[in-house]
Request: fold
Amino acid sequence: MHRLLPLLLLFSLTSGAVFGDTNPRSTPAVPKTLAALQTQTGKQFFVAQRGSLLIAADLPRQQFDYVVNGIVACCQKALERTFFTTRLTQPVTIYIFQNKESYARGLKKFFLLDPISPYGHYGHRQRYIVINYQTGPGTLVHELVHALMAADFPDAPIWISEGLASLYEQCRVEDEGLLGEANWRLPELQKALTDGKTVPLERLFGSDAQNFRLMDESLHYAQSRYFCLYLQEIGKLRAVYQTFRDNVKDDRFGVKSVEMVLQKTLPEIERDWLEWVAQQRWSKK
Reply:
């Protein structure tokens, strides 16, 4: 067992595919070949390609190589091995900026945008990721999950999309897979549990993107993440994801799939999950 990187970070609570949407009529086209990407970014950026992923970064060479051949390669392989049967067939372009200043400049220069968040986002219409690497590698892993899931489970509701993506904000590599670990979202969830303010799973599962982010957004993220972490810890995350994906036409929000895999009713599952949440521990290092 070894750690990929210390992926703990103050991650954007509003990052993700939906907030990454921009108007394709007003946003410049994203390069879809390595040569076009190098032409767009110029010599101050290193570029590389891994399968359908095109990557540009203004990082130092050694750090760039580590990001491409370490973080991206490892996470893509592990996620595809564990979850994603349908692989990317169309290019996804990843822009990694070394700090908030180059991030802001790059968004303005390449996309005519001001930062949607200070951390990064995934623009699913044009299939691109932008990252402020100064916030830590967990941001990159989170947005990479969105891009890979878009090909495999395009109809995924927001609770599992953000739950799975935020699960890997802090993770470790083990047996060629990624394992999420407890992170900074736990105290908010445990406080909500103590105060009797957790969102019922049925309502969380049924939330659309607007409702997910309109009220109690950070709690929705915490609950989604820690429900996925719970499924991981009882050995059911992969089965729930794949069962849900394969049956989404008849199970729009995943309730039937979760109940079928766990062989319990949703209220029983929620009770067991909340008992588990109460027992978790995390300390800021």
Q: What stands out?
A: The CA atoms of residues 208 and 223 lie 15 Å apart. Residues 1-25 have pLDDT under 50 and may be disordered. The longest helix spans residues 61-82. The domain at 17-168 is CATH 3.40.30 (Glutaredoxin).
